[in-house]
Amino acid sequence: MGGRTTLLYSERFLDYNLGPSHPLRPIRVKLTHDLIQSKGLLSEDEIRITVPRVASEEEILLFHEKEYVRLVQKYSERGSGLLDAGDTPAFKGCFEATSLVVGASLEACDNIMQGKFTHAFNPSGGLHHAHPERASGFCIFNDPAISVNYLKTKYKIRRLVYIDIDAHHGDGVMYGYYGDPSLLDIDFHENGKYIFPGTGFPDEIGENEAKGLKLNIPLLPGTGDEAYLMAFHKLVPDIVRRFQPEMILVQCGADGHADDRLAHLRLTTNVYREVVSEMHSLAHELCEGRLLLFGGGGYTLANVPRVWTTAFAALSGKKLDNQIPEHWSRGFRELTGEDPPNVLQDKPTSDDSKTIGEVDSVLDELTSYLTN
Asked: What is the pTM (predicted TM-score) of this model?
């Protein structure tokens, strides 16, 4: 399967910086770009960098309330203040920094819908927790949610699929479109009984005309590749085919990877490769290849660049060897003060029968809500 692919990137992505001690470290985006480049992907004829633009206020208002946007602008000029209960502090220039993240996702939408590229990846994006009226979970403006309404408004798209594989439930997107039948939202995440934001249970299936179009698959801590991919392959391809999307969006948070600092799943790069590869195939089968990949969470620096480089290769239809280039490793150590990873891709994790049974139970519970 062909298709030109673009990576949205600017060094200005590093400006989205919530502070030196904050777990969301913007250097992860640069490390990802550098690893993608080191692995030779940007030398391929059909892969290009796109420099992002800044989203306009009018575009941000496609999802967010004006009063909240004004608050962000005010705190951005002042350089201080809390935009939620404490996880998302304002900083000098935060309005401009988060507007660039949004603009990158909208530029990706334009590139895809105007036929310049078939696929796009915005590693700075995927800020899926922000709500219309407030920040949440390190997310100031919700670029996936804005992208959904942008595609509906500018390009008159009537059927969108949004897959979220971040370890944390994508509550801002799901509840923002909870009654909207134009968006099929499928969200795999660690069970909200154990992790922020405490939402996303199987009985939350949408409302009114969108009932049955919001699907939550909460997973117990310790779930590995085997159980995760079993659930993914059982559920996702059939329901996406039935929905017949005009475009597919995938939020690819890397915090489900084993040993993430803020989550407790046991996934490896294998899951991200398989999920993106499957969505890539479905996009070519159903909607002329149109697929937009966002970044998202990910708090262990040795994991995030590997996860997103593996995902980008799958998005581009490329296969990579398992070597970590030495010059990238040196740069990683210099930029982070940490030891670099040894290999690009991990050995898959298996699950015991109890874990597989628990995931099957979640699917059965979801099915019961969908059929009642």
From this structure: 0.98
